[in-house]
Design brief:
- 37% of the residues lie in helices and 15% in strands.
- It is flat, with a radius of gyration of 21 Å.
- It is α+β, with helices and mostly antiparallel strands and 131 residues long.
- Strand 4 (88-89) and strand 5 (96-97) form a beta hairpin.
- The strands form three sheets. The chain has a two-stranded parallel ribbon. The protein has a two-stranded antiparallel sheet with strand order 3-6. Strands 4-5 form a two-stranded antiparallel ribbon.
- It has helices spanning 4-19, 32-41, 55-59, 62-68, 114-123; strands spanning 24-26, 45-47, 74-78, 88-89, 96-97, 102-106.
- It contains five helices and six strands; from the N terminus they run αβαβααββββα.
């Protein structure tokens, strides 16, 4: 009888053999039926030029967001390499690990001087060799 780890490895291999490692790219938004087929298969897809006509594309800028969000506080997920939602290799044992990002509250004007703030926030991370 296979161990749970062997069974999981076989499941992952079978999944990749059946589904491939590509992401479909669509030129226009899918129909509701096609959308549901992607959802049912749990497959990602990209819709090229889907947001071209959104007002945010032309309207949002640092100046605009600063004026609209002037008194707001936002939470920013900070990681050393920008991958807050993905598995990373633990530098000690090499195993894949999901790590919770450092959440920093910013405001008002959360993106003003963001480079200096980001470096100060990153300095708060522990030495990765000791994690």
């Amino acid at each position: 009888m296979a161990t749970a780890e062997e069974a999981l490895a076989e499941l992952i291999t079978s999944y990749h053999e059946l589904n491939g490692n590509y992401i479909d790219q669509l030129e226009e938004p899918p129909s509701p039926l096609l959308f549901m087929q992607y959802v049912a298969r749990n497959r990602p897809f990209i819709v090229r030029s889907a947001a071209v006509n959104w007002s945010a594309v032309s309207l949002w800028s640092p100046d605009y967001l600063t004026s609209v969000m002037r008194d707001s506080t936002v939470k920013v997920a900070m990681t050393p390499s920008g991958n807050a939602d993905s598995a990373v290799r633990n530098p000690v044992d090499g195993k894949l690990t999901f790590a919770k990002p450092l959440e920093v509250s910013r405001g008002p004007n959360p993106w003003k001087n963001s480079r200096a703030s980001s470096q100060a926030d990153m300095d708060a991370f522990p030495d990765r060799r000791k994690v």
